[in-house]
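Lab notebook: predicted structure, single chain.

Context: the supervisor wants predicted structures on file for every construct in the current expression panel, including those that have not yet been purified. This is the next one on the list. No modifications to the sequence; it matches the entry in the shared construct table.
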Amino acid sequence: MNNLKSIEFWAALSIIIATVLLMAAVFLHWIRLSSSLGPFRLNHWMVWIGTLYVAFAVPIIAISKRRYPRKFLSLVRIHVFGNLAAFLLISLHFANQISRPPGSYPDLGTGLALYVVMTLLTATGFVQRFNLAPKIKPQTNRFVHISLAVSFYLIIVVHIMQGIGIL
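Prediction complete. Output recorded below exactly as produced.
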C-alpha cells in the first residue's frame, strides 16, 4: 500500500499543518495563551502536558512494541498521533514564548535547542513512518531518530533545571 494514499498519512499531515497554522495565530496574537489556569499560565500547562507525554509514553510504547509484537501497528499509531499532539502543544508554547514583547522576551537557550530537537524528532519520525525518503536506509533514519530522542531527554533535564533555578 502506498503510504501517501493512506488516511493515516493525511491525518498526520493535517495535524502538522494545523500546528503551523495555530503557531502563526499565536505568534500574531490572534490566539492568546497567557491566561492563568490555576497557579500557571495556559501555555505552560500545554508544554508540560506535551513534554510529560513524550517523556513517559515514548519509552512505554517502545518497550510495549517488543513485549506485545501483535499490537505493534496499534502502538505505532499511538506513538505517531500522541507525539504529534504533544508536538502541537509544545509548538504553541514555543510560539507564545517567541511572540513576547522585547521587555519580557525569554532567554531562549535550552528552550530553543529543545524545540529544534523536537522538530527534528517529528520530522524524522514522519519520514520514517511514511517512508518519504526511500533512498535513506531505514537503519540510518532510525539511528538519527533515536539519537534525537536521547538528546531530547538530556536537554529537557537541563532546561527544567534552569527553569527551577538549579543551573
